[in-house]
Write a structure and sequence with these properties.
- It is a single chain.
- The chain has 252 residues and is an alpha+beta fold.
- It folds into 3 domains: 55 residues, no CATH class; 73 residues; 107 residues, Immunoglobulin-like, CATH 2.60.40.
- The chain has 6 helices and 8 strands; from the N terminus they run αααααββββββαββ.
- It has an 8-stranded antiparallel sheet.
- β1 and β2 form a beta hairpin.
- The radius of gyration is 27 Å and the shape is elongated.
């Protein structure tokens, strides 16, 4: 398939590939085409660069004390495991060097090895519990959308976290709405009226409260330019659409 003849589809596939939402056979086919067609490969690299630069928008965050605790636990568990392996290697070397029948002399050594093994087990359990807590508390992403302007330039990345019931928005372009205007996010359900998901401030990243019903079976999101503070609740958009994009549900 000649993706260069379908620029909108190419942009969507390249963005999905960079985000990791393009899965299975579709991802393999896209990568095969990218290896064969330079324009497709360039689009994939451009989107990778755009999304990689989003980390620069975030303010530095001091890691929580629990993060350092988890790191220390992992290091301690690895040290204990290495110590146990060294003790076993030393015991095997001494057993090979001495005559048979001297097993009683190595009893203290094996007691030490057993204690080291028990310590490694305890540390592994602690690390496992900490990693489990980290996975439970990690943000989940169920839906993702890359909203672009009329020039197909990415301007806003939107993800939905069902655990925290919130939309996370990150600006990836240089668009500025000015001090007398506001951007407003809309869900565009099929066959239904646009539904407001919230008014955006001018921060590079922000969160909006939302439920899964707000985004379920919504194929498209759009952002309009409205008067300061957005349109009143219950009314539809008044201003022009400045960003728009497909909302994709992650299957994995």
């Amino acid at each position: 398939m000649n993706l260069t003849a379908h620029p909108e589809l190419l942009e969507l596939l390249a963005a999905s590939h960079a985000l990791g939402t393009l899965r299975g056979g579709a991802r393999r086919r896209f990568e095969t085409i990218a290896r064969e067609q330079a324009p497709v490969r360039a689009a994939a690299l451009v989107w990778q660069g755009r999304l990689a630069s989003m980390t620069e928008l975030q303010s530095p965050i001091v890691p929580d004390a629990a993060v350092w605790t988890r790191i220390r636990n992992i290091i301690d568990a690895e040290k204990a495991q290495h110590a146990l392996e060294r003790q076993r290697d030393d015991a095997n070397a001494r057993d090979a060097a001495r005559p048979q029948g001297g097993w009683l002399s190595s009893l203290a050594l094996w007691r030490g090895a057993t204690a080291a093994g028990a310590l490694a087990t305890v540390l592994a359990v602690v690390v496992g519990l900490n990693l489990r807590d980290q996975l439970v508390n990690a943000p989940a992403v169920q839906y993702v959308a890359v909203l672009s302007d009329d020039q197909a330039a990415a301007s806003l990345l939107v993800t939905f976290d069902p655990r925290k019931k919130q939309l996370v928005l990150q600006r990836v372009g240089s668009y500025s709405e000015g001090t007398d205007k506001s951007l407003q996010l809309w869900a565009l359900p099929p066959g239904g009226a646009p539904r407001s998901l919230g008014v955006l401030d001018n921060a590079p990243a922000l969160r909006l409260a939302a439920s899964e019903s707000d985004v379920h079976q919504v194929p498209t999101l759009a952002v309009t330019l409205e008067a300061k503070g957005g349109v009143p609740p219950g009314s539809g958009p008044k201003g022009p659409i400045v960003f728009k994009g497909a909302l994709i549900e992650k299957t994995i």
